[in-house]
């Protein structure tokens, strides 16, 4: 059975796992925390990052976007990327935006309130949290609010990998007591709730809250 190496609280690992669930692909999760990874793991992931996809035949592939693209080609049904070239290009852009700008905005909040407090047993820096909520989060959310409008999906006429990528970091935001302000970002708040209600996301969110890794 294929293996996903990575921690289930990672937005990048979650992105891959949601795609696997949507496509009905069985796999095993091997918990790997991306701090001080071993030399052996770096052979699988030269950048020392998670996730890494590993198949029984020895095929290895690091990086969530690369894994998702591979899975779409290897398991094309159901299709999770737009067939229209322009929509496909936009889907790749939204995935890139989510993996960079959006993750950068919410990570300080998650790191201080979860990684430091729960994992490292250190006092969280709430001033860093306040600064992120005031300076990093608003422009990232403003952009997505404007791009969404009242559309159901971030791009095209159906659920895609772009929606998976965009919705994933918001799970981390939610895990540490924050939510999208529906008064300030009504379209984004409704969108996040809608995507998180999908069975593929809902099951992982419940698993993460319970702290039990998938076997």
Task: Report strand %.
Answer: 5-15%
Described by the principal axes of the CA atoms, the overall outline is globular
CATH architecture of the largest domain: Up-down Bundle
Major sheet: arrangement of strands: 2-1-3-4
- How many strand units? 4
Unreliable parts: none
Major sheet: size, sense and barrel closure?
Answer: 4 strands, mixed
Average the pLDDT over all residues and give the rounded result.
95
Give the proportion of residues in helices. Answer: 55-70%
| Structural class based on helices, strands and sheet pairing | mainly alpha
What count of helical segments does DSSP give?
8
Count of discrete structural domains: 2
Give helix and strand order, one letter per element, not per position: EHEHEEHHHHHH
Q: CATH topology of the largest domain, which one?
A: Glutathione S-transferase Yfyf (Class Pi), Chain A, domain 2
Rg (CA only): 17 Å
| Distance, first to last CA | 11 Å
**CATH class (first level) name of the largest domain:** Mainly Alpha
Helix-strand layout with pairing:
Blueprint: E1 3-5, H1 11-23, E2 28-30, H2 39-44, E3 52-54, E4 60-62, H3 64-74, H4 85-119, H5 126-148, H6 161-175, H7 186-196, H8 199-210
Parallel strand pairs: 1-2
Antiparallel strand pairs: 1-3, 3-4
């Amino acid at each position: 059975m294929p293996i996903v190496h990575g921690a289930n609280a990672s937005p990048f690992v979650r992105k891959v796992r949601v795609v696997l669930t949507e496509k009905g692909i069985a796999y095993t999760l091997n918990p790997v925390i991306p701090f001080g990874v071993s030399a052996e793991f770096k052979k699988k992931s030269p950048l020392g990052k998670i996730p890494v996809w590993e198949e029984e035949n020895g095929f290895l592939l690091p990086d969530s976007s690369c894994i998702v693209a591979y899975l779409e080609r290897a398991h094309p049904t159901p299709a999770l990327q737009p067939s229209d070239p322009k929509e496909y290009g936009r889907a790749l852009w939204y995935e890139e935006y989510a993996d960079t700008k959006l993750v950068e905005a919410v990570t300080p909040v998650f790191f201080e309130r979860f990684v430091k407090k729960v994992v490292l047993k250190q006092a969280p820096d709430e001033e860093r949290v306040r600064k992120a909520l005031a300076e990093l989060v608003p422009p990232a959310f403003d952009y997505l609010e404007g791009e969404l409008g009242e559309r159901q999906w971030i791009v095209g006429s159906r659920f895609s990998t772009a929606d998976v990528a965009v919705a994933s970091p918001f799970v981390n935001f939610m895990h540490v007591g924050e939510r999208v302000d529906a008064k300030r970002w009504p379209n984004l708040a409704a969108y996040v709730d809608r995507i998180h209600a999908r069975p593929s996301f809902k099951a992982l969110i419940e698993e993460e809250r319970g702290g039990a890794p998938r076997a």
